[in-house]
Amino acid sequence: MRVALVHDWLTGLRGGERVLHEHARMFPQAELHTLVHVPGSTTPEIEALPTHASPLSSWPGAARHYRKWLPLFPWAVSRLRIAPGTELVLSTSHAVAKGVPVPEGALHVSYCFTPMRYVWDQADAYLGRGAFRTLVSPLVAGLRRWDVRTSSPESVHRFIAISETVRDRIRRHYGRSAEVIFPPVDVERFPLREAAPDDFFLLVGGFVPYKREDLALDAFAELGLPLVVAGDGPSRAALQARAAPGVRFLGRVSDEELADLYRRCRALIYPQDEDFGIVPVEAQASGAPVVALGRGGASETVVPLDDAAGRTPTGIHFAEQTVASLVAAVRALEARRDELDPKSLRAHAEGFSVPRFHREMGGALQRALAEGSRP
């Protein structure tokens, strides 16, 4: 079977690229299409695929500045050319990959990380509410129209959502149904802790507006507890400049270093409303409990203390994105730490494993191919 994979951009190894890595393992004969490709920035399995990039990829500064070219993304994805005779197009999309032109006779299945967050649910976080938002409102409206148009049954034959949260967004914004298949988490990469944790909490930052690292920094300034921050991103320098003395920034860390941090931390702090969120599952695989906002993906992956369904807890939820709510949750977790068993956390995380993803995704694609393009 001739398969084409489509991904928004290949500029680093993040959660979306870890999903694409598994698709590349499932279809090592596929051709890959993307807006921007920085060679060597992902995994050997992805880099081994024949890769076709849009014209944006050859522009000066593409690796650093591609996010600024958002208004050009619909044009760029329209320039991708999937070979005639392709039978399956599998897109992994949080921006525009699902808008790729699909050749006649091909089935297009979109594994949707989220409808374009810049113009839908998190537009305020990215664009603000002031004069700039007013200035760009025609652009936002145009991107929304394009996003809805390219979500039609003629463009995307089947949607698969990464979480119930995203399935609801697909229904609200596109009027489409979707199957839910949680992303793959390579739990085997994370050794289970065997000793008491060290005296620090962990924040893994992406340093873009909706990640809300600022909330964690302010909460730990009030708590006076040590916080280690791993990761990098556009707003890191500004946040680091105002952080309390007990906060230590490590910058970008390797997979091995991150696994060690998970294993040794008292708990992971997760203040964002995320589409799914691989990081909390990785932490639980290491035996680390999670203090998470009780919305979005973490509401599906972190079992709170006093869970209404009686499940074994793996962390605690806080209700509002406020300093007071997060501070109270950290204190509650510390008071009830004995109720959280590292082995139970690991067992919960194994429900999101890579073999489970391959099994569920393979079954969904087989069903979609058998049914054809019927919506």
CATH superfamily of the largest domain: Glycogen Phosphorylase B
Strand runs, count: 13
Q: Strand order within the widest sheet?
A: 3-2-1-4-5-6-7
How many domains comprise the coordinates?
A: 2
- Average pLDDT works out at 94
Inertia-based shape: globular
Mind telling me the CATH class of the largest domain?
Alpha Beta
Oligomer: single chain
Order of helices and strands: EHEHEHHEEHHEHEEHEHEHEHEHEHHH
Extract low-pLDDT stretches.
Answer: none
- Give the helix proportion (percent range): 25-40%
Beta fraction of the residues? 5-15%
User: According to CATH, what is the topology of the largest domain?
Assistant: Rossmann fold
* First-last Cα distance: 22 Å
> Could you say what the CATH architecture of the largest domain is?
3-Layer(aba) Sandwich
Helix tally equals: 15
Main β-sheet, in a few words?
A: 7 strands, parallel
Cα Rg:
21 Å
The structure class reads alpha/beta
